[in-house]
């Protein structure tokens, strides 16, 4: 494979591709599909934990979870779990319906964030912390692409975003930006870490997800 072919494989994808493991409905379960889903959510959680341990700034929702840990006796994993449950409750007035992937998202991402923060060492210099952040963003992008292509239901945050969009008519991008800004500010006020890693996440996570969606689309179309 030459350089141009490698670059071609890394071209971001504009949509969510249909893959051999994509479900027909949110509760269309099989052993292989559930295994792929769980793997993707585990990768996502471990990627998020790398951002945390990099100590250069977290993704907005993790800033909030970390802020909650500063004001309570909760660990980062439990704080993430409880925030996800709270966000899922917002689905009720929005009339959104969870899928198997939604519920798995709540449990497994929190679990693997908890595992990762105990396995990966905390970094105390900017260079190593930035490397952790970049690797974390890569893994979150990979994990997101895997679980999204399973088609078993949106995560709590994505469901809240689309639900608010459909209820208000406000553009999805603006809704997501508004949610992320509010969450980031709340987390920062509570004591969560905001920094270089936060900026890198905001700039790169969309491309990271899109690149892996493109890789899956090209690999499964052959």
TrEMBL record:
The chain crosses the membrane at residues 34-54, 74-92, 99-120, 126-154, 175-194, 200-219. The keyword Secreted does not apply. Keywords: Membrane, Transmembrane, Transmembrane helix. It holds the Pfam family DUF6198. Coiled coil: none annotated. The keyword Repressor does not apply. Signal peptide: none annotated. This is Unannotated protein. It comes from freshwater metagenome.
């Amino acid at each position: 494979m030459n350089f141009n072919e490698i670059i071609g494989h890394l071209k971001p994808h504009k949509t969510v591709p249909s893959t051999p493991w994509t479900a027909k409905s949110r509760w269309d379960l099989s052993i292989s599909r559930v295994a792929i889903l769980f793997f993707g959510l585990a990768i996502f959680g471990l990627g998020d934990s790398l951002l945390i341990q990099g100590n250069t700034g977290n993704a907005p929702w993790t800033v909030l979870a970390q802020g909650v840990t500063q004001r309570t006796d909760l660990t980062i994993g439990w704080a993430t779990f409880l925030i996800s449950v709270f966000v899922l409750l917002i689905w009720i007035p929005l009339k959104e319906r969870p899928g198997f992937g939604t519920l798995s998202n709540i449990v497994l991402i929190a679990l693997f964030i908890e595992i990762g923060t105990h396995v990966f060492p905390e970094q105390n210099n900017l260079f190593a912390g930035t490397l952790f952040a970049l690797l974390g963003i890569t893994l979150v992008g990979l994990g997101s692409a895997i679980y999204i292509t399973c088609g078993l239901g949106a995560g709590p945050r994505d469901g809240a975003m689309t639900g608010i969009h459909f209820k208000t008519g406000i553009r999805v991008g603006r809704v997501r930006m508004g949610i992320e800004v509010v969450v980031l500010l709340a987390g920062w006020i509570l004591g969560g870490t905001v920094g270089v890693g936060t900026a890198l996440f905001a700039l790169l996570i969309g491309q990271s997800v899109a690149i892996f969606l493109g890789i899956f689309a090209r690999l499964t179309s052959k």
